[in-house]
Design brief:
Helix content is 83%, strand content 0%. It has 227 residues and is mostly helical. The radius of gyration is 19 Å and the shape is elongated. The two termini are 35 Å apart.
């Protein structure tokens, strides 16, 4: 049965609010990774415990989007918002999953290893969380310039990964740290880089929603995300 206009607008409002909640919790978990990687067991447990709530939030948003697309047949701007929301929640879930992957690595990485990248990883966790918040806020407010600001911040996260590579190479050469954990340490930095890429895709959907065109069309999920 087709909903009334007021019911339809309420569905759009529900999607918007749910996206805000999902983004806020995901950004909180990404920021908590700095403490998790410093050995804070409570931070690790907090991030890991967010799995099921995140899945429920994703299912809620997707269900509303499906209902609208199947029953309401939205057009123009409304269709872009709904289809963009559907894609956005997928990218949020990718970030959320990667945050838990990092938390799992934090369980096995000794503090004397993670502290080698301490400043880099703290910066990356804050920067990615900010990118995520700005990207979702830009989507909710149709702010193209804020979305482009997310593109600019992505360079900082890429620089963190390059710096991490340099640190790991130096550690291997110096034999200062056991090579046992260095691949995992580098993978943590890679996860942050990929979370930044996910935030960029969200920002790109902002521009698509507003203009009908994408500025970062080549920014597609990596093979791990697609599985």
């Amino acid at each position: 049965m087709v909903a009334t206009r007021s019911e339809f607008l309420k569905q759009l409002e529900d999607i918007d609010e749910a996206l805000g909640r999902f983004a806020a919790k995901t950004a909180e978990d990404v920021r908590a990774l700095a403490q998790a990687l410093a050995g804070d067991k409570q931070a690790i447990e907090s991030v890991l415990a967010g799995d099921q709530p995140a899945r429920r939030q994703r299912a809620l948003i997707e269900d509303i989007c499906f209902d609208i697309m199947l029953l309401q047949q939205p057009v123009a701007g409304d269709l872009r918002f709904v289809s963009g929301s559907f894609r956005l929640v997928s990218d949020l879930s990718h970030i959320d999953d990667k945050a838990r992957d990092v938390a799992e690595l934090a369980q096995i990485l000794p503090a004397e290893v993670t502290e080698k990248l301490g400043d880099h990883l703290s910066f990356a966790s804050e920067r990615v969380a900010t990118m995520l918040e700005d990207a979702v806020e830009a989507f909710r407010t149709s702010d193209v310039e804020k979305a482009r600001g997310v593109f600019a911040m992505d360079d900082d996260v890429d620089d963190v990964y390059l710096a991490a590579e340099g640190v790991v190479i130096d550690l291997i050469k110096s034999s200062e740290t056991s090579a046992k954990y260095l691949p995992e340490l580098l993978m943590v930095a890679k996860y942050f880089e990929r979370m930044g890429d996910d935030a960029v895709r969200i920002a790109d959907w902002v521009i698509f929603r507003v203009t009908g065109a994408r500025e970062r069309a080549a920014a597609e999920p990596d093979a791990a995300d697609a599985q």
